[in-house]
UniProtKB/TrEMBL annotation:
GO MF, one example: 2 iron, 2 sulfur cluster binding
Domain 2Fe-2S ferredoxin-type, first and last residues per copy: 597-684
Organism: Pseudomonas oryzihabitans
The protein's name in its UniProt record: Ferredoxin-NADP reductase/predicted pyridoxine 5'-phosphate oxidase superfamily flavin-nucleotide-binding protein
Limits of the FAD-binding FR-type domain: 331-434
Length: 684
């Protein structure tokens, strides 16, 4: 190995591949040279010199990566210059990471304090000394404290004279090893990359809730990758050579479980969306397994009631399994318990909902709605309604905020009590905040149309806290009177949490009993003149929700100002769909003609069948005639509530629906069997 690696670029192809997939390659090309240095800043040098241990990553002669812990009294690490570390300690002969420590070898070091949640990494090339080794620094960089679980360190009063048990070389994970891994909330991972004939080794920390590492029956480990610093050192190394070494620590007994094997990054697994906080997954299959009981003199005491803030936003594999099972249930009804009822204004009441059995709820997308099945009249068929969710996906519960303005909403206000059960289906709807984007956001709410936009705003603040990057947002919120307007205090809290990234412009049609500049910024309704007055110049994406006239007027106004249709996301209340002006050259998808003959239809979930004829109308009308009660809202193809899986056969639409419909789905309210379908099976 060469003694100098300084000619290599900051990022190698594995790291840039993932940065490209995430959309930050150009940004990281600019940031990289500033944050990954070829020397140690003074604060890093001082930090290393006070530590009683280091996490070390090495590679043996067979190319296997290993992670371990190197102990010594505080001061066993010295930093005489910004480019050199001197370590006065050696590894035990039975440590599998030891053979990788030879003159000229590349290693990675991690300095970490679990009690203070500080960590810094340094990679380079070593030279062996009689007392240990010295490191010529190639890369030095700091890491934030996210996902580090706090633990108090206990230094040994005197060296332990008891004999150290021999290392155990396991053929596979036994019960003790599985328990250690499945109960872990912290582990360490070593990885490396070869580039231009040179090697760089890195060792890093991973943390999450106990259970965040899954162990399958055949010993395969699957680990979520949470949002981090966008460096992708570990995963980039895995992309290049598929090798990794994992270290699990029993902090009470000093036991080390060291695994070396092959790893793979999973970019497109359906389990990613089910695991709260996961951006991607990676798997690890151990090929060599070494357990060293009582290997460490150091011990740590956990803080069972203190969890890192970042970890609180993540999930576990049992929770992910529950979410996937709920998703598999698809259109089936489930009972949710009313956990809390909150008066938001003179006419709006919020209902907080949780699973009746205490299970985790499937996270909704910010902006979606919740279909409900209600029975306000005893002995009468249930009524189906949909209400926008006003909570963020990460809140852990559902919240619908209902304005009292009709028989059903009046029943909810008057009859529903905490502890009652509601029949619901999974959250649905295409009016949802885009997962990512560089545009600043403009949210336009009319009356109770604030509810899905509030969910979006809560989600944006949650993500901003998680990533320390807040997207600029301007919320225009119109109401008739101050007494009818909801969420004033909540909006103020969100504005404060965003640190200036969110601006709220409030409009009141009736300003009686309201103070200008205190209770509102605009007297009257939100229109294009109001937008021109308050909206800063910029590259915006727009989200509109409110009464049909409100939404249509603003949509038409934005299109008149030259805003692209794709930049305007809108949802109107009531059966009237938004009339969009399609961009020039837009092509309406070609649909097959409708069937003209009788088509047998099987409703597989309810084990019922029917025979569709042109006189039967839509598939929704056919299902209702057969005694079924599919969820619906608009009956016009613009809300997506009635979306149902097509198991066999094909459907078409005499009139093109406004809601998006994927391959293998049908919007029952406006779908009919397509010509040529001899049989149609629906998951209903």
């Amino acid at each position: 190995m060469n003694e100098s690696l300084t000619t290599l670029p900051t990022w190698h192809p594995g790291e840039t591949l993932i940065q490209e997939r995430v959309g930050v390659r150009q940004r990281m090309a600019e940031v990289g040279p500033r944050v990954i240095r070829s020397f140690m800043p003074d604060q890093h040098r001082a930090f290393y010199q006070q530590l009683p241990f280091l996490v070390l990553g090495s590679v043996d002669a067979a190319g296997l990566a290993w992670a371990t812990i190197l102990e010594g009294p505080p001061g066993f690490v010295a930093a005489p210059t910004p480019t050199r570390l001197e370590i006065t300690a050696t590894l035990p002969a039975n440590d599998p990471a030891g053979p990788g420590l030879v003159d000229g070898a590349a290693v990675g070091l991690l300095g970490i304090e679990l009690h203070s949640r500080r960590r810094n990494r340094v990679n380079g090339v070593i030279g062996m000394t009689p007392q240990g080794f010295h490191l010529a620094v190639d890369q030095s960089f700091g890491n934030c404290p996210r996902y580090i679980q706090p633990r108090d360190l206990h230094l040994p009063a005197e060296p332990d004279t008891l004999p150290v048990p021999p290392a155990e070389h396991l053929k596979s994970l036994d019960d003790d090893a599985r328990r250690l891994i499945e109960g872990a909330n912290t582990f360490f991972v070593a990885s490396y990359a070869e580039q231009e004939g040179q090697r760089r080794v890195d060792v890093s920390h991973r943390g999450g809730k106990p259970g965040f590492v899954r162990v399958d029956g055949d010993g395969l480990l699957t680990i979520p990758d949470f949002n981090g610093n966008l460096f992708f050192n570990t995963l980039g190394n895995i992309v290049l050579n598929g090798q990794a070494g994992l270290l699990f620590v029993d902090y009470q007994s000093g036991e080390l479980l060291q695994l070396s094997g092959t790893a793979e990054v999973l970019f497109d697994s359906p389990e990613i969306a089910a695991f709260a906080g996961a951006e991607r997954l990676w798997s690890f299959r151990p090929q060599r397994l070494v357990r060293r009981r009582a290997a460490l003199a150091l011990r740590w005491t956990a803080h069972p009631d203190e969890e890192a803030d970042s970890v609180q936003l993540t999930g576990s594999w049992p929770q992910a399994r529950a979410r996937l099972q709920a998703l598999e249930r698809g259109n089936r009804w489930q009972s949710l318990r009313v956990a809390r009822i909150v008066e938001e204004s003179a006419s709006i009441r919020s209902f907080h909902l949780a699973a009746a059995d205490g299970a985790d709820l499937v996270p909704a997308q910010a902006g979606q709605f919740l279909p409900l099945r209600l029975s306000p009249d005893e002995g009468q068929p249930p009524l189906l309604r949909s209400y926008s969710l006003s909570n963020a996906p990460a809140d852990g519960h559902y919240r619908i905020s209902v304005k009292r303005e009709g028989r059903v909403s009046g029943w909810l206000h008057e009859q529903l009590r905490e502890g009652d059960l509601l029949d619901t289906r999974l959250p649905a709807g295409d009016f949802a905040l885009a997962a990512s984007g560089n545009h600043s956001l403009v949210l336009l709410a009319g009356g109770i149309g604030i509810t899905p936009l509030l969910a979006m705003l809560r989600h944006l603040v949650h993500e901003g806290r998680r990533t320390q990057r807040f997207r600029p947002v301007v919320l225009f919120y119109g109401a008739r009177r101050k007494a009818e307007r909801a969420f004033d205090a909540e909006l103020a809290e969100l504005v404060a949490a965003a640190g200036g990234a969110i601006q709220v412009v409030r409009a009141l049609s009736d300003t009686q009993d309201a103070v200008a500049g205190v209770d509102y910024e605009v007297a009257g309704r939100i229109d294009m003149q109001v937008l021109a007055r308050f909206l800063p110049f910029g590259d915006h994406a727009f989200y509109l929700c409110g009464p049909a006239a409100f939404t249509q007027a603003l949509y038409d106004g934005l299109r008149g100002y030259g805003i692209e249709d794709a930049r305007i996301h809108a949802e109107a209340f009531g059966p009237a769909a938004l009339q969009r002006s399609l961009p020039a050259g837009a092509v309406v998808p070609a649909r097959p003609p409708a069937a003209t003959e009788t088509v047998p239809v099987i409703f597989t979930e309810s084990l019922k069948e029917a025979r569709w004829t042109p006189a039967a109308g839509s598939l929704l009308e056919l299902a209702e005639a057969r005694g079924l009660a599919p969820a619906f809202s608009c009956r016009a193809g613009h809300c997506g509530t009635c979306r149902t899986r097509v198991l066999s056969g094909a459907v078409t639409y005499p009139r093109e629906p406004a809601a998006a419909v994927a391959e293998g789905e049908a919007l029952l309210c406006c779908a009919v069997p397509a010509a040529g379908s001899t049989r149609l099976e629906l998951d209903l």
